[in-house]
Design goal:
The radius of gyration is 14 Å and the shape is globular. The chain is α+β, with helices and mostly antiparallel strands. Strands 1-2-3 form a three-stranded antiparallel sheet, with helices on one face. The protein has helices at 33-43, 51-58; strands spanning 2-11, 14-24, 27-28, 62-66, 69-73. The longest helix is centred in the middle third of the chain and has 11 residues, at 33-43.
Length: 75
């Protein structure tokens, strides 16, 4: 089980999830800065979105989480 808790931030021309907490199982990898970042890149960022979704994601004006709801705002 991989769990990421964080927030969205604009990086370049798209929004990305910036992890505040990162767990594999119950192990809090965010407390081990170098290892946590490396495993985040390998486990989470390795997967690429399909081209249609990636193109639509770049057009977003805003991304936020409100409770358990992901809100995507188009211009």
């Amino acid at each position: 089980l991989v769990q990421v808790i964080g927030h969205f931030a604009k990086r370049g021309d798209a929004f990305v999830l910036t992890p505040d907490q990162f767990y594999v199982g119950s192990c809090p990898l965010h407390k081990v800065p170098v290892l946590g970042e490396l495993l985040y890149q390998v486990l989470v960022m390795k997967e690429k979105a399909p081209p249609e979704i990636a193109a639509a994601w770049k057009k977003l004006a805003g991304v936020s989480i409100d409770g358990n709801t992901l809100k995507l705002t188009m211009p």
